[in-house]
Specification:
This is Holliday junction branch migration complex subunit RuvA. By secondary structure, the protein is an alpha+beta fold. The protein is 52% helix and 17% strand. Strands 1-2-3-5-4 form a 5-stranded mixed β-barrel.
Protein backbone atom coordinates (compact mmCIF):
# COMPACT_ATOMS: atom_id res chain seq x y z
CA UNK A 1 0.00 0.00 0.00
CA UNK A 2 1.32 3.44 -0.95
CA UNK A 3 0.29 5.73 1.91
CA UNK A 4 2.28 8.85 1.15
CA UNK A 5 4.05 10.47 -1.79
CA UNK A 6 6.79 13.08 -1.42
CA UNK A 7 8.56 14.50 -4.43
CA UNK A 8 8.54 17.22 -7.07
CA UNK A 9 5.63 18.13 -9.32
CA UNK A 10 6.40 17.43 -12.98
CA UNK A 11 2.93 18.15 -14.38
CA UNK A 12 -0.42 19.54 -13.25
CA UNK A 13 -3.56 18.17 -14.93
CA UNK A 14 -7.20 19.12 -14.49
CA UNK A 15 -7.73 16.50 -11.76
CA UNK A 16 -4.28 15.10 -11.06
CA UNK A 17 -0.60 15.83 -10.65
CA UNK A 18 2.44 13.89 -11.81
CA UNK A 19 4.92 13.68 -8.93
CA UNK A 20 8.54 12.72 -9.56
CA UNK A 21 9.92 10.64 -6.69
CA UNK A 22 13.63 10.03 -7.33
CA UNK A 23 13.09 9.47 -11.02
CA UNK A 24 9.82 7.56 -10.80
CA UNK A 25 6.68 9.44 -11.80
CA UNK A 26 3.40 8.85 -9.95
CA UNK A 27 0.04 10.11 -11.27
CA UNK A 28 -1.97 11.18 -8.22
CA UNK A 29 -5.64 12.17 -8.57
CA UNK A 30 -6.63 15.03 -6.29
CA UNK A 31 -9.66 17.19 -5.51
CA UNK A 32 -10.05 20.66 -6.98
CA UNK A 33 -9.33 22.15 -3.55
CA UNK A 34 -6.14 20.17 -3.13
CA UNK A 35 -4.99 20.98 -6.65
CA UNK A 36 -5.48 24.69 -6.02
CA UNK A 37 -3.42 24.51 -2.81
CA UNK A 38 -0.49 22.61 -4.33
CA UNK A 39 2.62 24.50 -5.53
CA UNK A 40 3.63 24.90 -9.16
CA UNK A 41 5.51 22.63 -11.54
CA UNK A 42 9.05 21.96 -10.36
CA UNK A 43 8.27 22.52 -6.69
CA UNK A 44 8.26 20.01 -3.86
CA UNK A 45 5.04 18.58 -2.46
CA UNK A 46 3.78 15.79 -0.23
CA UNK A 47 0.40 14.07 -0.13
CA UNK A 48 -1.19 11.23 1.77
CA UNK A 49 -2.40 8.66 -0.74
CA UNK A 50 -4.93 5.89 -1.17
CA UNK A 51 -4.26 3.18 -3.77
CA UNK A 52 -7.35 1.94 -5.60
CA UNK A 53 -6.81 -1.55 -7.02
CA UNK A 54 -9.05 -3.01 -9.71
CA UNK A 55 -8.60 -5.90 -12.09
CA UNK A 56 -7.47 -3.67 -14.94
CA UNK A 57 -6.52 -0.44 -13.16
CA UNK A 58 -4.33 1.00 -10.42
CA UNK A 59 -5.08 4.57 -9.33
CA UNK A 60 -3.57 6.78 -6.64
CA UNK A 61 -5.69 9.41 -4.91
CA UNK A 62 -3.98 12.15 -2.91
CA UNK A 63 -5.03 14.14 0.15
CA UNK A 64 -3.43 17.03 2.10
CA UNK A 65 -4.58 15.62 5.47
CA UNK A 66 -5.39 12.26 6.98
CA UNK A 67 -8.83 13.65 7.84
CA UNK A 68 -9.67 14.14 4.18
CA UNK A 69 -8.33 10.70 3.38
CA UNK A 70 -10.56 9.24 6.10
CA UNK A 71 -13.61 10.99 4.66
CA UNK A 72 -12.78 9.70 1.18
CA UNK A 73 -12.73 6.16 2.53
CA UNK A 74 -15.98 6.65 4.41
CA UNK A 75 -17.79 8.12 1.41
CA UNK A 76 -16.75 5.14 -0.67
CA UNK A 77 -18.55 2.79 1.73
CA UNK A 78 -21.86 4.16 0.42
CA UNK A 79 -23.31 2.10 -2.41
CA UNK A 80 -22.98 4.00 -5.67
CA UNK A 81 -20.16 6.26 -4.48
CA UNK A 82 -16.90 5.39 -6.18
CA UNK A 83 -13.50 6.95 -5.74
CA UNK A 84 -14.17 9.76 -8.22
CA UNK A 85 -17.60 10.58 -6.81
CA UNK A 86 -16.11 10.73 -3.32
CA UNK A 87 -13.41 13.04 -4.64
CA UNK A 88 -16.07 15.20 -6.31
CA UNK A 89 -17.85 15.62 -2.96
CA UNK A 90 -14.57 16.63 -1.30
CA UNK A 91 -13.86 19.02 -4.18
CA UNK A 92 -17.21 20.71 -3.65
CA UNK A 93 -17.28 20.76 0.14
CA UNK A 94 -13.93 19.80 1.60
CA UNK A 95 -13.64 17.39 4.53
CA UNK A 96 -15.14 19.83 7.01
CA UNK A 97 -18.00 20.82 4.72
CA UNK A 98 -18.85 17.20 3.99
CA UNK A 99 -18.89 16.42 7.70
CA UNK A 100 -21.14 19.38 8.43
CA UNK A 101 -23.56 18.61 5.59
CA UNK A 102 -23.90 14.95 6.53
CA UNK A 103 -24.31 15.70 10.25
CA UNK A 104 -27.05 18.24 9.50
CA UNK A 105 -28.72 15.96 6.97
CA UNK A 106 -28.14 18.50 4.20
CA UNK A 107 -28.46 16.35 1.09
CA UNK A 108 -28.63 19.44 -1.13
CA UNK A 109 -25.08 20.37 -0.16
CA UNK A 110 -23.87 16.89 -1.11
CA UNK A 111 -25.79 17.16 -4.37
CA UNK A 112 -23.69 20.21 -5.28
CA UNK A 113 -20.87 17.82 -6.19
CA UNK A 114 -20.69 17.14 -9.97
CA UNK A 115 -22.25 13.81 -10.88
CA UNK A 116 -24.04 13.34 -7.56
CA UNK A 117 -27.80 13.24 -8.01
CA UNK A 118 -30.51 13.75 -5.37
CA UNK A 119 -31.04 10.04 -4.65
CA UNK A 120 -27.35 9.37 -4.18
CA UNK A 121 -26.92 12.50 -2.05
CA UNK A 122 -29.78 11.37 0.18
CA UNK A 123 -28.23 7.91 0.48
CA UNK A 124 -24.90 9.43 1.54
CA UNK A 125 -26.62 11.41 4.29
CA UNK A 126 -28.73 8.49 5.51
CA UNK A 127 -25.87 5.98 5.59
CA UNK A 128 -23.19 8.24 7.07
CA UNK A 129 -25.08 10.50 9.46
CA UNK A 130 -24.50 8.14 12.37
CA UNK A 131 -20.81 7.74 11.51
CA UNK A 132 -20.03 11.43 10.92
CA UNK A 133 -19.76 12.43 14.62
CA UNK A 134 -17.11 9.76 15.19
CA UNK A 135 -14.96 11.09 12.36
CA UNK A 136 -15.50 14.65 13.59
CA UNK A 137 -14.44 13.62 17.10
CA UNK A 138 -11.11 12.23 15.93
CA UNK A 139 -10.57 15.02 13.40
CA UNK A 140 -8.18 16.98 15.63
CA UNK A 141 -5.89 13.98 16.14
CA UNK A 142 -5.82 13.31 12.40
CA UNK A 143 -4.95 16.94 11.64
CA UNK A 144 -2.19 17.07 14.24
CA UNK A 145 -0.65 13.76 13.32
CA UNK A 146 3.21 13.94 13.39
CA UNK A 147 3.36 12.68 9.81
CA UNK A 148 1.21 15.61 8.72
CA UNK A 149 3.52 18.01 10.58
CA UNK A 150 6.39 16.46 8.64
CA UNK A 151 4.54 16.92 5.34
CA UNK A 152 3.85 20.59 5.98
CA UNK A 153 6.86 21.75 7.97
CA UNK A 154 9.84 19.53 7.24
CA UNK A 155 12.61 21.34 5.33
CA UNK A 156 13.32 20.26 1.77
CA UNK A 157 16.51 18.38 0.93
CA UNK A 158 19.39 20.65 -0.22
CA UNK A 159 18.62 19.99 -3.89
CA UNK A 160 14.87 20.40 -3.63
CA UNK A 161 12.80 23.53 -4.02
CA UNK A 162 10.61 24.98 -1.24
CA UNK A 163 8.24 22.60 0.54
CA UNK A 164 4.55 22.40 -0.17
CA UNK A 165 2.18 25.08 1.05
CA UNK A 166 0.47 24.56 4.42
CA UNK A 167 -2.87 22.81 4.52
CA UNK A 168 -5.88 24.98 3.64
CA UNK A 169 -7.74 26.95 6.34
CA UNK A 170 -10.45 24.32 6.27
CA UNK A 171 -8.08 22.03 8.17
CA UNK A 172 -7.96 24.47 11.08
CA UNK A 173 -11.74 24.81 11.07
CA UNK A 174 -12.10 21.02 11.17
CA UNK A 175 -9.74 20.91 14.15
CA UNK A 176 -11.80 23.57 15.96
CA UNK A 177 -14.97 21.56 15.33
CA UNK A 178 -13.35 18.35 16.54
CA UNK A 179 -12.08 20.00 19.72
CA UNK A 180 -15.48 21.58 20.38
CA UNK A 181 -17.24 18.26 19.87
CA UNK A 182 -14.80 16.54 22.23
CA UNK A 183 -15.47 19.19 24.88
CA UNK A 184 -19.24 18.73 24.60
CA UNK A 185 -18.91 14.96 24.86
CA UNK A 186 -16.83 15.43 28.01
CA UNK A 187 -19.66 17.56 29.40
CA UNK A 188 -22.00 14.61 28.99
CA UNK A 189 -23.91 15.48 25.83
CA UNK A 190 -24.89 12.68 23.45
CA UNK A 191 -22.64 12.37 20.41
CA UNK A 192 -25.40 12.92 17.84
CA UNK A 193 -26.81 16.00 19.58
CA UNK A 194 -23.37 17.47 20.17
CA UNK A 195 -22.23 16.87 16.59
CA UNK A 196 -25.34 18.51 15.17
CA UNK A 197 -24.91 21.54 17.45
CA UNK A 198 -21.25 21.96 16.49
CA UNK A 199 -22.05 21.58 12.79
CA UNK A 200 -24.81 24.19 13.03
CA UNK A 201 -22.56 26.58 14.96
CA UNK A 202 -19.73 26.11 12.44
CA UNK A 203 -22.10 26.84 9.56
CA UNK A 204 -23.42 30.00 11.22
CA UNK A 205 -19.99 31.26 12.33
CA UNK A 206 -17.34 29.85 9.91
CA UNK A 207 -14.53 31.90 11.47
CA UNK A 208 -15.25 30.79 15.05
CA UNK A 209 -12.45 29.15 17.02
CA UNK A 210 -12.88 26.25 19.46
CA UNK A 211 -14.00 28.38 22.41
CA UNK A 212 -16.54 30.27 20.29
CA UNK A 213 -17.91 27.04 18.84
CA UNK A 214 -18.36 25.60 22.32
CA UNK A 215 -20.28 28.69 23.46
CA UNK A 216 -22.48 28.73 20.36
CA UNK A 217 -23.11 24.99 20.58
CA UNK A 218 -24.08 25.19 24.24
CA UNK A 219 -26.65 27.86 23.38
CA UNK A 220 -28.11 25.55 20.72
CA UNK A 221 -28.21 22.66 23.19
CA UNK A 222 -29.96 24.63 25.94
CA UNK A 223 -33.53 23.44 26.57
CA UNK A 224 -36.04 25.61 24.76
CA UNK A 225 -38.43 27.52 27.02
Amino acid sequence: MIGKISGRIDHRGSDHVLIDVRGVGYIVHVSDRTLAALPGVGEACALYTELLVREDLLQLFGFPTLLEKEWHRLLMTVQGVGAKAAMAILSALGAEGAARAITLGDARAIQAAPGVGPKLAQRVVLELKAKAPGVMAKGASLLSDPVLDEVIEAPSPPTARPAAKPAPKGAARAAYSADALSALLNLGYQQGDAAQAVATAAAEAPEADTASLIRLSLKLLMPKA
